[in-house]
Amino acid sequence: MLHKISTTFFGTHDFAVTILQGLIDSPLFEIELVITQPDRPIGRKQELQKSPVKILSEKHNLKIDQPTSLKNYQSPITNHKLSIVAQYGLLIPPNIVSAPKHGTINIHTSLLPKYRGASPIQSALINGETKTGVSIMLMNVGLDSGPILLQKELNIAPDDTYLDLDKKLANMGLHALLETIPDYIVGKLKPTPQDESQATLCSKLSRKDGRVDWQKSTLEIYNQYRGLTPWPGVWTVWNDRRLKLLKISPAEKNILTGRVEINYDRLHIGTGDRSIEISKLQLEGKKVMNVKEFVNGFKNIDREEL
Fold first, then answer.
1. Residues 6 or more apart whose Cβ sits within 8 Å of residue 231
2. Please, is 38 exposed, middle or buried when counting C-beta atoms within 10 Å of its C-beta (0-12, 13-18, 19+)?
3. Of 284, 205, 280, 278, whose CA–CA distance to 237 is shortest?
4. Per residue in 231-253, pLDDT tens?
5. Distance (Å, rounded) from C-alpha 9 to C-alpha 32?
6. What residues form the annotated binding site?
7. Which of 113, 169, 203, 234 suits 270 as a labelling partner, its CA being 20 to 30 A distant?
8. Which domains does the chain have, with CATH numbers?
9. Which residue in 301, 18, 94 sits closest to 292, CA to CA?
10. Predicted confidence (pLDDT) per residue in 126-177, tens digit
């Protein structure tokens, strides 16, 4: 029978909350330290907001640290048996990765070596993948290049968005992690090197990635929306102002590329092959609106071009 595993947890976002809660609930782990990103200023008032992981950690009276960088970080990690990383978001130096007795395990949201990097869930959706999964891996000095302990595959539903897939993969990742660690700790599970010839990279996203190119197909634009909602979101430009497309769906209506058509409070925009229907949107400097509110506020937009 395993003794409790003294563990450092690195995580920041909602995905990491699912993992941390599962570790707290498990009799296998003693969470000695939680490392999460610093509180960030949010909104117009720039009020500091705690990360979801910090909020959960405070609820359970866990020790928390929030370094702005781990480059010169001094911590008791060397006294812990294991570190676990889940969507932490900051670079972890090699000396910290290798500090615990059993190393550092990362829950990566792709079937490595595909989609190494910062946006694996978004990239899978944008590229129209029908399958993805989680990889439980040992971290090394490379970018998501460490050996694999376990992988689980997941089918992607046609209308899954980032939030849907993030939640599904968090639950899958937790179960895979809890399945993996006992056998790994006692030496029954040996890490398998990744096939470097199959490696692909995905980059960190920015707001510019959300701009819609209306020359693309309906499916390509819809996949872009699925991957980039809620952040950074998809958008276009109308009358020199950014127009956020908050809720869209594919449509069969054939419209000229970039042409806007309004019909009984339904708004369509032509794509490279058919059209997209917009049902919720927000013009720069304005509140979120449904199509009826938008049309009533801005006359003569039917058959304009974007």
1. 205
2. middle
3. 284
4. 999 999 988 899 999 999 999 99
5. 8
6. 110-113
7. 203
8. 5-202 (3.40.50.170), 207-297 (3.10.25.10)
9. 301
10. 999 999 999 999 999 889 999 999 999 999 999 999 999 999 999 999 999 9
Q: What are the backbone angles phi and psi of residue 20, rounded to the nearest 5°?
A: -65, -40
Q: What is the pTM of this model?
A: 0.93
Instruction: Pull the structure tokens for residue 128.
Output: 């129209």
**Contact 160/61 with Cβ under 8 angstroms?**
no
Non-local (6+) Cβ contacts of 219 within 8 A are: 128, 250
The amino acid sitting at 183 is D
Annotated binding site for (6S)-5,6,7,8-tetrahydrofolate: 110-113
In 3D, which of 57, 5, 58, 56 has the Cα closest to residue 27?
5
- Tokens 């010169």 locate to 72
Report the residue count for the chain.
Answer: 306
The C-alpha angle 181, 138, 121, rounded to 5 degrees, equals: 95
Tokens representing residue 296 in the block = 């009533």
